[in-house]
Amino acid sequence: MRRAVVVDAADGGLVGEYVHGGRIGVLTVLTGGSSEVAKDVAMHVAAINPSVAHPENMPQEELDAEKRLSWHSLIWLVSRSRSLRKWFRAA
């Protein structure tokens, strides 16, 4: 086991859990939603395999790289959206 954390959900909070292959386990705490949503969020966290649990623990260079990637992804999505709108108008 590499990391372990005790999780305490506040009043009304939900804890979601997901274990993948007996090797990767994720707990999430939500203040709204449902247990199904909490489990879905935990599943997505397991899939992306984050290097840290809290953004403030991430090295600055890694954080900057993630921000650049997010920015470039957003630009690509906007340009793709514009292209699709033009294509549908022409059809």
UniProtKB/TrEMBL annotation:
Belongs to the EF-Ts family. Keywords: Cytoplasm, Elongation factor, Protein biosynthesis. It is found in: Cytoplasm. Its main location: cytoplasm. Coiled coil: none annotated. The keyword Cytoplasm applies. Associates with the EF-Tu.GDP complex and induces the exchange of GDP to GTP. It remains bound to the aminoacyl-tRNA.EF-Tu.GTP complex up to the GTP hydrolysis stage on the ribosome. This is Elongation factor Ts. Residues 1-69 form the Translation elongation factor EFTs/EF1B dimerisation domain. InterPro entries: EF-Ts_dimer_sf (IPR036402), Transl_elong_EFTs/EF1B (IPR001816), Transl_elong_EFTs/EF1B_dimer (IPR014039). HAMAP family: EF_Ts. One of its GO terms (molecular function) is translation elongation factor activity. Pfam families: EF_TS. It comes from Vreelandella sulfidaeris. SUPFAM superfamilies: Elongation factor Ts (EF-Ts), dimerisation domain (SSF54713). GO terms for cellular component: cytoplasm.
